[in-house]
Amino acid sequence: MRIVVVGGTGHIGSRLVTALQDCNQDVVVASPSSGVNTLTGKGLAKALDGAQIVVDVSNAPTIQDDIALDFFRTSGRNLLAAEHAAGIQHHVALSVVGTDRLPESGYFRAKMAQENLIRASRIPYTILRSTPFFEYLTGIVESAADGNVLRLSPAPIQPIAADDVVVALRDVAMGRPQNREVEIVGPDRFYLNELAEQILAANEDTRSVVADAHALYFGAVLRDDTLVPGDHPRFAPTRFEDWLRRYVADALPVAF
Prior knowledge:
Blueprint: E1 2-6, H1 11-22, E2 26-30, H2 44-48, E3 53-56, H3 65-86, E4 90-96, H4 106-120, E5 125-130, H5 137-142, E6 145-146, E7 149-152, E8 156-157, H6 162-173, E9 181-185, E10 190-191, H7 192-202, E11 208-211, E12 216-217, E13 220-221, E14 234-235, H8 240-251
Parallel strand pairs: 1-2, 1-3, 3-4, 4-5, 5-9, 7-11, 9-14
Antiparallel strand pairs: 6-7, 8-10, 12-13
Helix pairs in contact: 1-6, 3-4
């Protein structure tokens, strides 16, 4: 099979390309650096020529409401139109758990717009919704910083290792279209504020964390069900404690 990975040079995309190649798949990397621009349509027809599957793991350059919405709408329309012309048999997209439960967030509205385009396209599809990656938690925590205090929601969250998301994407791409949303989540559930405390402790950061039910997450107030999966998610194997232990070990200077 020839599989096109849109956003194939990014954090998830580059790992997915390697994972698919390790399974002897013919992979095309589609990104601006490879001459493919989904916002303008440049290079799309050539990239999709002879392909059967497209995996879209691209992301907006910013979470700013209007920019994110324009990116996902424009990119999605151009990509899906090119897929129609190329006869693509399976469109796979990476999305976010809670997309349908955070309409107050401009970024999540943009992701929902992307999903709606896919569902309306008549191309067989699978949307993989993931919880936040372990690797991105530090950025989420830092966005809540107010001097020496971090105000974070005590809402439940079930984060996941990026490598586990890559494995799930690989399996979905090589499987049959499901024409629905599939959720992938980490094995353990935490409260967001308590997770932040663990991250600060691992980084020997003395700032304090305050649980604030009104703290914003991507511009919206979280509820208890916002960032947790529905009834039948796929559970990833990597535990946060194990990942954090490796993260701390990798950050230590090499002993001579």
